[in-house]
Amino acid sequence: MSITINTNSAATVARNNLNSSNNLLQKSLNRLSSGLKIVNPADDAGGLAVSMKMSAAIKRTDAVNTNLANAQSFLQTQDGALSTAGKVLDRMSELKTMSTDVTKNSTDIANYDTEFTALKAQLNSLSTEKFNGVSLFTTAASATTLEVGTTEDGATTISLDQAALANAVVTATGAANLAAFTLSNATGAIENVATLRAANGAQSSQMAFASDMLTVNKQNLEAANSRIMDVDVATESTSLARANILVQAGSSMLGHANASSQIALRLIG
Q1: How far apart (Å, rounded) are the C-alpha atoms in residues 141 and 164?
Q2: Is residue 18 a contact partner of residue 247, using CB atoms and an 8 Å limit?
Q3: Does one domain contain both 78 and 17?
Q4: C-alpha 114: how far from chain center
Q5: Do 101 and 197 sit in the same domain of this protein?
Q6: pLDDT value of residue 265
Q7: Would 3 be classed as within a structural domain?
Q8: Could you tell me if 72 and 197 lie in one domain?
Q9: At 207, phi and psi to the nearest 5?
Q10: Do 103 and 192 fall into the same domain?
Q11: Which segments of the chain have a pLDDT < 50?
């Protein structure tokens, strides 16, 4: 190899190697300091695109789970109203039975009838209850439904019934007074309310399982996204140590390469 002054090929090679090692060192430092495997899009363009879609799916999954929790609260409030309606009907049937006591005079029966009238008003009031402005019960003869999404892509839903409470207890609220109210009216209305509570419980159970599935989906999405985006600290620490040694070695060799041109001065002198 010839000895030259204008061109120092060894120094050029050493400089290029040093730059390459320094880039690796900076990349490892960026990854370890941020905790991310993909700091810049150029690190893994395809992986970044997949990660962005997964991150959006994770956020939607959280939102759907929140919606399901709110729907559960709706159902719990609805069941509370149905439970109260059942208690009211129990009391109305009790009043009817007590009014048939031969030892009760007309004043006693009139007092029972006063309470009966108040309980009818309470039943009617329950049928108009709302949850955050949304009616718990429909005023129509048949139940209507509210669609609640159970997947982040909106492909699957659960029908949330707005039970027709007024229609279920019409035999009780429609009686003009206690005398016109029969025990068969009471038992029929109680059975109707019991059926509504059973439907309510079935929907609540279905939503609980849907929420469990969303929790599992989110966990797996986060794990998959982590494999794309999160840096493996152990592996990257090894890369950092290697790059650090190469930078130090490259700096030393570049100094030696630059000094090697001084041989030409000795020859000239």
Answers
A1: 6
A2: yes
A3: no
A4: 49
A5: yes
A6: 65
A7: no
A8: yes
A9: -70, -35
A10: yes
A11: none
